Amino acid sequence: xxxxxxxxxxxxxxxxxxxxxxxxxxxxxxxxxxxxxxxxxxxxxxxxxxxxxxxxxxxxxxxxxxxxxxxxxxxxxxxxxxxxxxxxxxxxxxxxxxxxxxxxxxxxxxxxxxxxxxxxxxxxxxxxxxxxxxxxxxxxxxxxxxxxxxxxxxxxxxxxxxxxxxxxxxxxxxxxxxxxxxxxxxxxxxxxxxxxxxxxxxxxxxxxxxxxxxxxxxxxxxxxxxxxxxxxxxxxxxxxxxxxxxxxx
Length: 249
Hints:
This protein is of the alpha/beta class. Helix content is 39%, strand content 27%.
């Protein structure tokens, strides 16, 4: 099970939101590049980056920082937030991202989503963000009428190679993952799932590995690392101890 430490960027700073609420922001570091380098030094093999400004505005915003992170670390990064066109996805890939995460456009324009899957293949990840089982869009500020399961099935049919599944109600809460949502979505599709939201302890990582009906390919961890619940190195070592090398994606 792959450990993906998260860097959320807003206004050029490394921040975390609580349940996706832009009014509940906490700044953890003024230098996201420095944070990325520290994650690499602790053994991370992927870094998950969210451009929060881009997620809200609809167009990636923090290009210089994302490009600098890609230049300064030797591990792949995946980037989401405002990726709502093929051009934006390509620009992020050209800036050094190995994967881009597409969320809102999956709901708004399935035909474009299919074009992106067909054109960019493994370099595109379907980001499904849910609250009470229903998909949220536009930087989590709007609720759609689509269920996470329904959207996951549609994206798999359109050619998505993997899904990042986030329970917004769990994000930043440190109260454990939504195992029910993960089980429902992962059981409905054959493609890999990366779980996001709620990780606050080693017990939560063990829960995902041992209790999920279908084990996630990876898990995104944010606030627990920033608040010292455990380190990236400790999480990577724990995942490796499960019997699957945490360095394999």
